[in-house]
């Protein structure tokens, strides 16, 4: 049940009485998207030095009607910035979207124990040199003897996982060939996966 509609912000106050779980989830998701769209409008209005209500009157309501919602309009704009070219405020929207919704970078790290009682540190260094020949973008650090971390930062999560797991395999093979030992202490995992970029995805 609709209790109140705020045309300036696009917010809708709803009563969840007698609403099913699926309907409640749908309403909350729609509210989240409306809030995000309003935040973009608000920031663009601030950059353009105009009241946000004027921005809604000039293009907000029209774009919402054309694209089904303002969120839908901004999703399309993120995919193809040319849709903003027909508005004198397009440059401000581009700036807000470019700065606030950059593609995520995934940081994937694996921790391994490496030791070599035969050739010592020279063999360990050799193992990591082999890694860097194949994956020069990896970051390798000594956490504490004998534990090392290997980290890959990439916009592609799958590629980052492949890189660190392949690096671990290279170190393992090199260590075993030179009389050393190798153990995975902490399997590859993602650090800092969340991104506002994902909020402007067309997930219907």
From TrEMBL:
<dbReference type="GO" id="GO:0003723">
    <property type="term" value="F:RNA binding"/>
</dbReference>
<keyword id="KW-0648">Protein biosynthesis</keyword>
<dbReference type="InterPro" id="IPR024054">
    <property type="entry name" value="TIF2_asu_middle_sf"/>
</dbReference>
<protein>
    <submittedName>
        <fullName>Uncharacterized protein</fullName>
    </submittedName>
</protein>
<dbReference type="GO" id="GO:0043022">
    <property type="term" value="F:ribosome binding"/>
</dbReference>
<dbReference type="InterPro" id="IPR024055">
    <property type="entry name" value="TIF2_asu_C"/>
</dbReference>
<dbReference type="GO" id="GO:0003743">
    <property type="term" value="F:translation initiation factor activity"/>
</dbReference>
<dbReference type="InterPro" id="IPR011488">
    <property type="entry name" value="TIF_2_asu"/>
</dbReference>
<dbReference type="Pfam" id="PF07541">
    <property type="entry name" value="EIF_2_alpha"/>
</dbReference>
């Amino acid at each position: 049940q609709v209790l109140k509609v705020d045309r300036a912000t696009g917010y809708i106050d709803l009563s969840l009485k007698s609403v099913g779980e699926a309907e409640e989830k749908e309403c909350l998701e729609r509210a989240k998207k409306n809030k995000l769209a309003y935040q973009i409008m608000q920031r663009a209005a601030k950059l353009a030095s105009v009241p946000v209500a004027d921005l809604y009157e000039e293009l907000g309501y029209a774009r919402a009607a054309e694209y089904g919602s303002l969120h839908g309009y901004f999703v399309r704009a993120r995919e193809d910035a040319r849709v903003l070219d027909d508005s004198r405020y397009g440059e401000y929207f581009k700036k807000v979207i470019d700065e606030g919704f950059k593609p995520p970078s995934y940081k994937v790290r694996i921790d391994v124990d490496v030791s070599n009682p035969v050739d010592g540190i020279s063999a360990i260094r050799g193992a990591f040199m082999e890694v860097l020949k194949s994956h020069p973008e990896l970051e390798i650090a000594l956490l504490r003897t004998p534990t090392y971390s290997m980290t890959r930062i990439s916009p592609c999560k799958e590629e980052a996982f492949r890189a660190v797991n392949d690096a671990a395999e290279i170190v393992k093979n090199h260590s075993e060939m030179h009389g050393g030992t190798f153990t995975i202490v902490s399997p590859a995992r993602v650090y800092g996966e969340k991104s506002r970029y994902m909020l402007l995805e067309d997930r219907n």
